[in-house]
Amino acid sequence: MPFTPFDLSGLRLPNRLAMAPMTRSRSYVDGIPSSLTALYYAQRASAGLIITEGVQPSHAGKGYMDTPGLHTDEQVAGWREVTDAVHAAGGRIFAQLMHAGRIGHPDNTGHLPLAPSAVRPAAQIFTPNGMQDVPVPVELSTGEVEATVRDFADAARRAVEAGFDGVELHGANGYLIHQFLSQNANLRDDRFGGSVEGRIRFAVETARAVAEAIGASRTGIRISPATGVQDLVEEDAHEVYPALVSALAELDLAYLHLLAGPSDELNARIRELWPNALIVNDPAAAHPSEAVGRWLPRGADLVAVGKYFLANPDLPLRLRLGAPLNEPDLSTAFGGDHRGYTDYPALALHPAGEPA
Ligand SMILES: Cc1cc2nc3c(=O)[nH]c(=O)nc-3n(C[C@H](O)[C@H](O)[C@H](O)COP(=O)(O)O)c2cc1C
Fold first, then answer.
1. Fewer CB within a 10 Å sphere, N or C end of the chain?
2. CATH number belonging to domain 6-332
3. Is the CB of 333 under 6 A from ligand 1?
């Protein structure tokens, strides 16, 4: 079953394994991905779908050190090299658009983080001066929230110009879109806050603007309901996420990417409400085969794998053969050079295709 093809709104995927988005912090010059980044993704082109690391849609959306962007011509040119390399290797690639919101530090970005409300998360962030507390963010005005929606749409257009097959909006893991959904990071009293309808508005308007800019069939969104990540409180997740997923369902997006949360009931409810393709990433799975075995029978169309795709450029082949996996070394996850990036070995195969 994981090795059967899938039609993702017209994009033919050869298998059901997606590479989950993973920040690697190796864009050292002006947020431009390097040739090494092109090699890293091209090595993983046998994924049914590659979803890139988080990419900031604007400089204001940057939070971490050395992350790439999609808001300058030079960044578009850098990504063009990446998408060309992936396509030449037979792959398909979506860019994950990520605005970090209140998770950031002036030492990384030159500006205070921006957020739905001026509420400091109990969180720390890596900076050139070591780990530091995340500062109190600046609250976005209503006009600035609307401008941020447009920034996402502009970045999506640039992604298509750069050769991406589509974009995924990062609505998970405690960053800007997720902050708007929560009860404690979003204390706004304008139309982007307050009621459940108000708190889902930023996510829905952003998804609509991006779908209008590049087509719904090229637009996906990632969510991580009620995981308590980055100090977010979501006690009403059982109301917020069904409302969000129902509103997104009307946009006919290519996919919803669910980071499976602790509530089986909510995970199942989301599958029921979502009419299009569902990608599931299960952080609790010890091995990719476990995630595949658990989620494809429960209605996932694709399973996204993070750390084991980082460490195994040929992960689909290894899973098909039942071959052993390289273990990820997370000490080289963020920053550094080719080590722990492009030097994880593929299987050495005999001509018959069996592991050597
Ligand atoms: C090094 C690293 C960087 C990550 N960066 C991102 C990111 O940029 N965007 C995102 O949505 N998730 C990010 N994640 C989360 C992964 O996509 C995934 O949800 C998580 O690793 C759990 O899946 P796994 O057990 O298959 O790795 C990152 C994870 C790792 C290990």
1. C
2. 3.20.20.70
3. yes
